[in-house]
Structure formats: structure tokens, C-alpha cells
């Protein structure tokens, strides 16, 4: 479980990093922040590409940065968008590789939104535990 201070800091990190998103096509900046098991927060933004299929979401950018830094376990996730939007299906699946039923905070630019969990967003998930 994470405490209120960690939750607030995580959400603020997701909101702040949104400004660095590269979104010339959708104009929909997304910031993601991951709380790792040692308390470190790793952030990411969406990076669009003129070949739309090569666009990478903020959540997957953050996961890639975390793994590159040597982390393997996510304790909580915050995603900041214009309207407290939810991660796409691909991001939900990637998150389940490194997290279990962790808290997910979906917020707008003011920090308003909703709290949920990863398994609520991806019921009947498929993760590493299913491979034996």
C-alpha cells in the first residue's frame, strides 16, 4: 500500500511531465508516473510519430525507462490527460508484466479524476504468473 504523500507526489509528477509530451497530431498530451518499490518515481510521456502506428504511449515510455534503469516492480501508476482518460489496452497489458493489482490514479491537469486498480482496468488479465 502507498501512503497519501506518495499518492500526491505520483499524481503531481504525472501532471508535470505532460508538458514534455510530443503530440503534434492528436494534441492530446499524456503524462505517466510509476512508483517503483524503492520509492523512486519514473515518468514518461506519449511520443507521436507521423507514421501513427509507431507512436508510443506515456505509460509504455515510463515502463521502458524503469526497466532500463533496472526496476522490475511497479507499486502504483498515475496517468494525467486533459480529461482523466484511461490507459489503452496495450498499456494495460504492458503494466501487468511489472505490476499486480496496483492502484491506478487517472487525473486531469488539475488532479481531478478517479482512483481504480490495474486489474479493474484489465479484468481477466494475462501475466507472467500464467506461464508457470
Low-confidence stretches: none
Strand content: 15-25%
Summarize the helix and strand pattern as letters: HEEHEHEEH
Main β-sheet, in a few words?
Answer: 5 strands, mixed
Give the overall average pLDDT. Answer: 96
Query: Rg, please?
Result: 14 Å
- Distance N terminus to C terminus? 26 Å
The amount of helix comes to 25-40%
Q: Would you count the extended β strands for me?
A: 5
Task: Please list the strands of the largest sheet in the order they lie side by side.
Answer: 2-1-3-4-5
Silhouette: globular
Tally of alpha and pi helices: 4
Structural class: alpha+beta
Report on this structure.
There is one protein chain. This protein has 132 residues and is an alpha+beta fold. 30% of the residues lie in helices and 21% in strands. It contains four helices and five strands; from the N terminus they run αββαβαββα. It has helices at 4-17, 58-68, 89-98, 118-121, and strands at residues 31-36, 41-45, 74-80, 103-107, 113-117. β1 (31-36) and β2 (41-45) form a beta hairpin. The mean pLDDT is 96.
Concise account of the structure shown:
This protein is an alpha+beta fold and 132 residues long.
Core attributes:
single chain; 132 residues; alpha+beta; five-stranded mixed beta sheet; 4 helices; 30% helix; globular
